[in-house]
Design a protein that fits this description.
The protein is of the alpha/beta class. It is built from ten helices and ten strands. The strands form two sheets. A six-stranded mixed sheet has the order 1-2-3-5-7-10, sandwiched between helices. It has a four-stranded mixed sheet with strand order 4-6-8-9. α3 packs parallel to α4 and α3 packs antiparallel against α9. It is globular, with a radius of gyration of 18 Å. The termini are far apart.
Length: about 260
């Protein structure tokens, strides 16, 4: 019998033109554990090496695309994910994942029809094209937990208008797919996100692999420059924040489904 620890948290499937990476960790709402991050990176590498793959689709099972960091592991209140962290801090692992999506020479389409929170927003921002279905809700909840959207700011801020970022980074409010499209976070909000994704893949198939790779490099150059300039500092600050009393109180209150001390 296969041990649960050996089950992949990301399914890899291909058809004649696309590789689909499906986040499949429902027990923690596809939280960004070391194992899930490693599985996504492995899937990206596999797709990159397959000459028949023209595009990568990043999607999910269940009602949540990605809940962000695994707070139970971060606070020590849940089982640790042994995973394959490779000696990296959680912030460094997250930065590496976002960079891997950006550096993949094949277009990455986010097919999202569920809740997106915190670190999951970074995945959406890293995708070249993002399609939001009708069940989508989005929120940058870090400030409510005593944290900040440090690492994911590298991919989210280039997508959102500055006024929208100023509101949602600070308030942590939820917003829907239509609002996400209006502010530039997603490419299109649609009632049938899968059908829209299929149409986009069909269009990408008309482009040459070289043309796609070179065009994507133009689009991601400025964002990758931001990684070179700021990722190290942001990783260090993120690690510091997770260990502060306010952040521990915020994460613990969230897990206990109560208001944190500052909101009582």
């Amino acid at each position: 019998m296969t041990d649960k620890q050996d089950w992949p948290l990301v399914r890899y499937d291909t058809d004649e033109v696309r590789a689909t990476l499906t986040l499949d960790s429902p027990h923690n709402r596809n939280a960004l554990s070391p194992r899930l991050i490693a599985d996504v990176r492995a899937g990206l590498a596999r797709a990159q090496d397959d000459p028949d793959v023209r595009a990568v689709v990043l999607t999910h099972t269940g009602g949540t695309f990605c809940a962000g960091a695994d707070l139970s592991a971060a606070t020590g209140s849940g089982p640790a994910d042994a995973g394959t962290g490779g000696g990296e801090s959680p912030a460094e692992a997250m930065a590496g994942l976002l960079r891997a999506i950006l550096e993949c020479p094949k277009p990455v389409i986010g097919l999202i029809d569920g809740h997106v929170r915190a670190g999951g927003m970074g995945l959406v921002g890293a995708c070249d094209i993002a399609v939001a279905g009708p069940r989508c809700t989005f929120a940058l909840t870090e400030a409510r937990l005593g944290l900040a959207a440090s690492i994911i700011s590298l991919t989210v801020l280039p997508r959102m208008t500055s006024r929208a970022a100023g509101r949602y980074f600070l308030t942590g409010e939820k917003f829907d797919g239509a609002r996400a499209e209006a502010m530039g976070l997603v490419t299109v909000a649609a009632d049938d996100a899968a059908a829209v994704t299929d149409a986009l893949v069909a269009e990408l198939r008309k482009a040459s692999p070289q043309g796609l790779a070179e065009s994507k490099a133009l689009l991601t150059r400025a964002v990758l420059a931001g990684f070179d300039a700021d990722a190290g500092r942001l990783c260090e600050r993120s690690a510091q924040l997770f260990g502060t009393p306010e952040a521990i109180e915020g994460m613990t209150a969230f897990l206990q489904k109560r208001a944190p001390a500052w909101a009582e």
